Amino acid sequence: MTNHDEHVLDRLSDYLDGMDAAPDEVCEHLQACSACKKHFQELERIADALEELPEPDVAPAFATGVMNRIAKEPKKTARRIVLFSPRILAMAAGILVLIAVGLIAVRSQVMTPDNTAVSSLNAVTEEMILAELAQRVQLRRADVPEWLVNASSDEEEDPHTALTSEEWLDSVMEMNWFSNMVDDWEAAESSDDSQTDVFDEDDTLDNWTNESVPGEVLL
Amino acid sequence: MTDATDWELVSRVKSGDTDAFAQIVSRYQKPVIHFCQRMLRSRQDAEDIAQECFVRFYRSVDRLEPRAKVSTMLFCIARNLAINHLRDAERRGRGITDSMDAPEAKQIGSTSSLNPAREAHLAELGAMIERGLAAMTPEHREVLLLRELQGFDYDEIAEIAGCPLGTLKSRLARARNALRDFIVANGGNLT
What we know:
The complex is a heterodimer.
Chain A: H1 12-16, H2 23-32, H3 34-51, H4 60-71, E1 80-81, H5 86-109, H6 115-137, H7 146-153, H8 165-173, H9 176-192, H10 201-205, E2 217-218
Antiparallel strand pairs in A: 1-2
Chain B: H1 6-14, H2 18-40, H3 43-60, H4 70-91, H5 102-105, H6 116-135, H7 138-149, H8 154-161, H9 165-185
Helix pairs in contact in B: 1-2, 2-3, 2-4, 2-7, 3-4, 4-8, 6-9, 7-9, 8-9
C-alpha cells in the first residue's frame, strides 16, 4: 500500500485511533520519515490536550429544571398507542366496515310484520355496536351523528331505510370527533416545533424506536 | 440501584419511575453540557440545549428500543439541537458569542501536580485549542469533540453525526489537521 517514500499524513488520524487498515505500514514509515513522525506527534499532543479539557461544574438547579419540565409531561404509566400508524388505521377501517355491514344486514334482512320488534332488535344491536365503538376510541355519545342516535332509539323509523355502506363511511368521516382529533394532533405537533428545526430529533431517534410514526395520542 | 444499566433505567422510566430518569440525567448531564458548551461557546445556551435534549429524550422514551447506547441517543439529540441552534443564530446574523469564562478556557493541567512551567504550557495550549475549536466549522468541531472528549468510537460518531463512516473518517482527519495548523500558525508549542 505504501513504501518509505510515500508520506502517510492522510492516514495518521485513523492510525491515531487504531483504525488504519494497515497500521504496520504506517508505523514503519513513521520510523523512517521525520516529517510524518513530527506531524503524528503533534496530533497526539492535541488529542491528549483535548482529553484534558475540564468538564464544567453542573449546578443542582440544572437537574431540578429538567425534572420540573418532566413533571409537566404526560405520565408514563398509561399505555401509549400510536393512533395514526397504518396498522391502526387499517384496523379501524376494518371495524367500521364490519359495523356497516352488520347494520345493513340487521336492517334489511330481518323482515317481520312486527315493526316494533324489528326496531327493538335494531336498537339493541346498534347500542351494543355503539358501546363497543365508544369503548375503543373513547367516542363521546354527544359526538355521534344525530341520524345514528335517532336510528337506534326512534321506534317510528322505517327499518327499511338503511344506509348504504358508502353513506355510513361518509358520515363517519364527517364526525366532529374525528376531525377534532386530527386538529388536536396537528396542533400538538406544531406546538412542539417552536423553532424551525433542520433536524427532527424524533426522526433521528426513529432508528431506535419500534414505531416511526409521529402522531401519538395517549389513550 | 445506582448500578443499574442505562437500559434498566430506561425500562423503569417507561413504567413511570421518574427517579430512574433523574438518575439518567445525573449520569449524563455533565458530558452533555460539556459537549454543548464546546459546540456553542456559551454556557447558558449549552444548559438550555442540554435541558431540551433530556426532555426530548423523555418524550421519546416509550418508543425506544435497546439497539444503541443511551449515551449515543442523548448525544444524537444534543448534537442536532446544537447544530440547529448554530444555524438559527447564523440566520439571525447573530453568530455565536463567545461567553466562556477565560479561566475555564485555560484550566488544562491546573489541578494536576505538574511543575509550574509545564502547567503554564498546558494552559497556553488549552487556550489555543479553545480558539482553534471556535474557528472550526461545526461539522469538524462536533466529530472532534465526540471522539476526543466523549470517547465515542467511529460507528457511534457516524450514527450521531448522521454521516457515512468514510465521511466521518475524512472529516475527523481534516478537523485534526485544521486544529494542528491553527495552533502552529499562531505560534503554539506542540512539543
